[in-house]
Specification:
homodimer; 606 residues; alpha+beta; Butyryl-Coa Dehydrogenase, subunit A, domain 1; Butyryl-CoA Dehydrogenase, subunit A, domain 2; 3 domains; 5-stranded mixed beta barrel; two-stranded antiparallel sheet
C-alpha cells in the first residue's frame, strides 16, 4: 500500500488527507471526463511517481548541484545521469500525466497531476524544471495553436521527445515586459524570422531532448509599443520537416550560461535569435495577442513555482524531523542532571516549535497549491457559466498568493530545517543547505515577490473591484460558520480570529481601492507587499481551520495511528493560530495607516 | 578626509554618526587611559582599516569562497592570498588594536576597536575570523592566565604570529557543554595531557601562522559531571621552548575539514587531541573553573558574531543601493507609457521599501553592536562599583540580543539585497548570494538562536529577577521623555509606541517569571524564541528613536549633504515605527497567551 512506503519526499498520509478529505478530489470521478478513474488509479499514479522520484531523481540531487552545466564548444555539458533520469520519467509517461488518450496520457485531473509533479519537485527541483516547462509549453500550444501546430509539436512534447521553454525576459526587460524588443518579420511562406536576445531562459539549451521548442515573445514591425504590441512565436531549435523528422538547425544560439546560487541542474541561458538570417518562427494565435497567450503558461508556471517551493519545504521538514528524533543533545530545562543521558532534540520545546512551523508552512503550502489546482478542475468541470466565472475569479485572485506564499515561507521552513540540524545543517554533508539555496530562486522567477504583490492588490483587488475577494470571503464565511456550529471552544475561537483578520483585510483593501480610484495610484499601491504577506497568512490560516474541522469530525472514530496523525494536524492548526495569524496585524499596520514612508523616501537620502 | 572615501563596506558618515553623535565616544578621551587619543586618532585608525580592508580583504572575498580549504597530506591547503592578506593585517598592527603599549597596541577603546574590526568583517568575513578568534583567545589569557602564560603567549598572539582558537564542541556535545568528555591528566611537571576529539573548530588548523594556540575545555579525573567539571587548557599546535622558539609538534591532529555552505575561507575542523601520548596542555585558572573563563571569550565572540552579521547586512545594503540607483526597469504605476524611457528601480516604492528595510536592519544592527561595545568601555571606566554593576547587567542582558538580532535580520537584509538585484542577485556574478550564504552561519555558531533565547529569558530575565531589564527600561524611559518633551508630533507618537511595546515586554516577562518561580520552568521557557524576537525589535526601535531625536536636534542647522543624511535617518526611523515595531505584538501573542502548543506537541504526532 502506498501509505506504507516511507518517504522523505512527502507524507503520503498527509497527501491523501489533502486530496481526499480536504479537497474531496474523489468527487471528480463522478464527472464524465474522469469516469474511468478512481481513488485507486489516482493512488497508483502517485505510487509510480514516488517510486521513480525516489529511485532516479532524489539520488542525483546533490550531483546536479556539484556539477552544474558547462558551456563547452558551443554546447551544454551536463552529467549523463540527467538524461537517464529524464528518460525514465518520459518512459513512464509523466509528460502526459494530465492529458487524455490523444497524447497517450494518463488523463488525470489537474489536482492529481500536480500531486504527481510534487513528488518530483521534492526529489529534485532543478531536474523537474525540464518537464515542468515542457508541459506548460505544450499546454499553451494545445490552447492557442492551430491544428497544424498541435499536430507538429504536441505529440513530441507530451511524449517527452522535445522539451519546451518560455522566452520572455531580455537583458533590458526582466520584470518589464513592455520593453521587450526582440523583433519578428513575416515571410512570404507564412513563417516569421525572429531577431533578438533572450535572458534567464530556463532549459534554454541542452542536449537532453531531440529538440527544444521555444515560445518567444517578439514584436512585429509597426506593432504598438508596450505589452500590447507583443506577439508569440514557436521557435524550435531544429526545424521539423513535413514527415516529422528533424531538419536544419534553426538560427538560435546559446550565448551564455548563468551561474546560480542553486537550482543548478536547470540550465539558465542567454539565447541569441537571428544572429545570421533570422530564426524561423511560427505565429501563435494572432499578431499582438502574444502576452494574453503567454499568461496561460505564466499562470500555470506561477502555481508550479509555488508547488516547487512547497515541496522543497516539505522534504526539508521531513529530513529535519528524522534528525530531531534521532539526535541526542541536552536535557530538559527542569532537570539538568548531567548523569542522565542526553535526550533526542525533538524533546526540546523550541525544536518542536521549529518543526511545527515547518509543518505549518510545508503542509499549508501544499494544501494551498493543490487547492489552486482543484480550482482549475472545478472551473473546467463547472456546470454553469456563473460557477465557471466564480472559480476563475477565485483562481485569479489566489494565483499571486500561490506563487509567493510558498516561496517566502518555504524558504523560512528550509532555514528552520538547517537550524534544527545545527552546525551539520550548514555543511554540504546534509541536503538542507541545498534545499535552501534552491528555494531562494522561487521569490524571483516567474514574477518577483513585489510583482505578485502589485498583481494581488492592483489588478486582482482594486481593478476587479474586490469581486474575487468577496467570492473568497464567502468561502471563508462558510468555514467560520461551520467552526462556530460544532461546539468546540477552540474551533470557535480560531473562527473568530480568522473572521477578524479577514475583516481587517477587507477594511484595508477598501481603503486602498478608494485611494486608487481617487487617482492616487502610486500611493495606494506603495504598501502592496505587506498586504500580500498579510493576505497569504489569512488564506493559509483558513486552510488550516478547515483541516482542524476535519480532525474534529474524525478524531473520535480513528485508530491509534490515525489519532496520532489527526492530533498532529490539530496541533499544527493551533500553532498557526497562536504563532502565525497574529503576525497579520503587524503587516497590515503600515497599510492601514496608509504610511507614505517608502513613497516619501528619496534616492539621495540613502 | 575619511568621509570622502567612497566605500561599499560601510557609510563612514553613518559610522561617525553612531560613534560620535549617538554613542558620544569622543568623551572617552577624557578618561586617563585614552588621554592620548582624540577623534582624529580614532578616525586615522578607521581610515587605515578601511584602506587595508578594501585593498587586501574585499578583493579576495570571492576567491576564498571558490577555493575552500583542502585537506592534503594531513595539512590544510588554502590560496596563498589568504596568508598575504593576513600578513598585511598583522603588519599594520591590528591584532593589538585594542591593546596598550605593552603589546605594541594602538590603545583604542573597545568601541573604536570594534568599529575597526567592522571594516574587515564587511570586506571578508571568513578571513576576519582568524584575527577575531586570535584576539578573543589572547584577551582570555590576558584576563585569566598566569604571568608566565601571558609572557609566553600574548606577544605572539597580539603580534599576529600565533593564531588562536576556542575548542568547546565535540561530536556528541554541540550545544550541550555539560557533555564535553575530552579529558586531561596532570603530569609531574605541572603540565597536563589532553585526550579527546573537538568538532566545529574554526581556524582549528592551517598554515597561516607560526603556531596555533587552542583553548580547550576538558575534564580532569574525578571532576564533577556537567559544566561544573570543566577545566580550561592552553594547548598549542607546536610546543614553545623556554627561549621562545618553536619546539616539537604537539599531539594535536587535524582529523577532517567540514565543507560548509558559506564562510568558506575559515577552516572548520575536527581535531584529535592525544592520539599518541597526549597533547601537552597548560591549565588556565583553577581546575573546574574552565567554563567561567571560557564565557569571557564566548561573550566577546557573541558580540563579534553580531557585528559580523551586521556588516554582511551593511555591505549587501550598499551594493543593492548602488544597483537600485543604476538599473533601469519599468515605469511608475501611474504613468505606464511605454514610449517613455524606463526609470531606475530605486524610483519604485517597493524597491525603496527593500532598501529602507536593509538600512534599518544594517545601521540598526551596527548601532546595537557598537552600543554593546561602548557598554564594555563604560563598565571599564566606571567611577563607582554601582555604575560598573549596572553597565555589566545591561551588557549581560543585551549580549544574547546582540548575538541574535543582527544574525536574524542581517540575513533578511541580505535576502532583500538579492531581491533588489532580481535574477542577477541569484547569480554568482554578484557578491550578494555569498553574503547571504556567509551570514546564514551566524544564527548557529557561538550558541544557536534558541540558546540565546533561553539565555535572555531564563538566565538574564527570570533568574536575574528583571534587574537588567529594569536598568534597560530606565534608559528607554529617558529617551521616551526626551521625545515627548521636544514638541514634534511624530517623535511623540513613536515614543508612545515604544513605551507601549516595552510595557508589553515587561508584562510578559513578569508572567513568565511568575510561572518559572512557581516551578513550571519548561512551560515558562517554551516560548523563549518569540520573546527574544520581540525583545530585539524593541531594543533596536529604541536605538532608532534615539537617532531620530538627534536628527531633530541637528536638521535645521545642517548643510545640504548633511540634511540628506539626516533625512535618510529620519525616514529609516519612520520605517521602523511603521513596518517593524508593529510586528512585536504578533510575536508576543503566544507568549502572552502562555501558549502550550509547542510544549504539548508529541514526537509521534508529527
Amino acid at each position: 500500500m502506498s501509505a506504507a512506503i516511507p518517504s522523505k519526499l512527502v507524507n503520503r498520509r498527509d497527501l491523501a488527507f489533502i486530496l481526499y478529505e480536504l479537497l474531496e478530489s474523489e468527487q471528480l470521478t463522478a464527472v464524465r471526463k474522469y469516469a474511468d478513474h478512481s481513488r485507486d488509479t489516482f493512488e497508483a499514479a502517485l505510487d509510480a511517481a514516488q517510486r521513480l522520484a525516489e529511485a532516479e531523481f532524489a539520488p542525483i540531487n546533490r550531483l546536479l548541484d556539484q556539477h552544474e552545466p558547462e558551456f563547452v564548444d558551443g554546447k551544454v555539458r551536463q552529467p549523463e545521469a540527467v538524461r537517464r533520469a529524464l528518460a525514465a520519467y518520459r518512459d513512464a509517461g509523466f509528460f502526459a500525466a494530465g492529458q487524455d488518450d490523444v497524447y497517450g496520457g494518463m488523463g488525470l485531473p489537474h489536482v492529481i497531476a500536480q500531486a504527481v509533479q510534487a513528488m518530483f519537485n521534492a526529489a529534485n527541483i532543478s531536474l523537474t524544471a525540464y518537464p515542468f516547462l515542457t508541459i506548460g509549453n505544450a499546454n499553451l500550444i494545445r490552447t492557442f495553436g492551430t491544428d497544424e501546430q498541435r499536430r507538429t509539436w504536441l505529440p513530441a512534447l507530451y511524449g517527452g521527445r522535445y522539451f519546451g521553454t518560455m522566452c520572455l525576459s531580455e537583458p533590458q526587460a526582466g520584470s518589464s515586459l513592455a520593453d521587450v524588443n526582440t523583433t519578428a518579420r513575416p515571410c512570404e511562406d507564412g513563417t516569421y524570422r525572429v531577431f533578438g536576445q533572450k535572458m534567464w531562459i530556463s532549459g534554454g539549451d541542452h542536449e537532453l531532448a531531440e529538440n527544444i521548442v521555444h515560445l518567444v515573445l517578439a514584436r512585429l514591425a509597426g506593432a504598438p509599443a508596450g505589452t500590447k504590441g507583443l506577439s508569440l512565436f514557436i521557435v524550435p531549435k531544429f526545424l521539423v520537416k513535413a514527415d516529422g523528422t528533424l531538419g536544419a538547425r534553426n538560427d538560435v544560439a546559446l550565448a551564455g550560461l548563468n551561474h546560480k546560487m542553486g537550482y543548478r541542474g536547470t540550465t539558465n541561458c542567454v539565447l541569441s535569435f537571428g544572429e545570421s538570417d533570422g530564426a524561423v518562427g511560427y505565429l501563435v494565435s494572432e499578431p499582438h495577442k502574444g502576452l494574453a497567450c503567454m499568461f496561460q503558461m505564466m499562470n500555470e508556471a506561477r502555481i508550479g513555482v509555488g508547488l516547487g517551493a512547497a515541496m522543497l519545504a516539505y522534504t526539508g521538514y521531513l529530513h529535519s524531523l528524522e534528525y530531531a528524533r534521532s539526535r541526542p543533545q541536552g536535557r530538559p530545562p527542569a532537570s539538568k542532571d548531567p548523569s542522565c543521558p542526553q535526550i533526542p532534540i525533538i524533546l526540546h520545546a523550541d525544536v518542536r516549535r521549529m518543526l511545527l512551523a515547518q509543518k505549518a508552512y510545508a503542509e499549508g503550502a501544499l494544501a494551498l497549491c493543490l487547492y489552486a489546482a482543484s480550482l482549475i478542475d472545478q472551473r473546467e468541470t463547472a456546470s454553469t457559466r456563473d460557477e465557471q466565472r466564480k472559480y476563475g475569479a477565485l483562481l485569479e485572485l489566489l494565483t499571486p498568493v500561490v506563487k509567493s506564499w510558498p516561496a517566502q515561507w518555504g524558504l523560512v521552513a528550509n532555514d528552520l530545517a538547517i537550524q534544527v540540524h545545527g552546525g551539520y545543517g550548514y555543511t554540504r554533508d546534509y541536503p538542507l543547505e541545498q534545499f535552501y539555496r534552491d528555494n531562494r530562486l522561487n521569490a524571483i522567477h516567474e514574477g518577483t515577490h513585489g510583482i505578485q504583490a502589485l498583481d494581488l492588490l492592483g489588478r486582482k483587488t482594486v481593478h476587479d473591484r474586490l469581486e474575487g475577494f468577496e467570492e473568497l470571503a464567502a468561502h471563508l464565511a462558510r468555514t467560520v460558520r461551520a467552526a462556530h456550529h460544532n461546539g468546540d471552544a477552540r474551533l470557535a475561537r480560531w473562527a473568530r480570529e480568522l473572521q477578524s483578520a479577514l475583516d481587517r483585510l477587507r477594511h484595508v483593501a477598501t481603503l486602498v481601492s478608494r485611494k486608487a480610484i481617487g487617482g492616487a495610484v502610486e500611493e495606494a499601491l506603495s504598501n502592496a507587499t505587506p498586504y500580500l504577506e498579510a493576505f497569504g497568512h489569512v488564506i493559509v490560516a483558513w486552510l488550516w481551520l478547515r483541516q482542524a474541522l476535519l480532525v474534529h469530525a474524525h478524531l473520535d472514530h480513528a485508530n491509534a495511528d490515525e489519532r496520532a496523525f489527526y492530533l498532529g494536524k490539530w496541533q499544527a492548526a493551533a500553532y498557526v493560530f497562536d504563532f502565525e495569524l497574529p503576525k497579520v496585524e503587524g503587516w497590515l499596520f503600515p497599510v492601514a495607516r496608509q504610511s507614505t514612508t517608502t513613497l516619501d523616501m528619496r534616492s539621495e537620502w540613502f
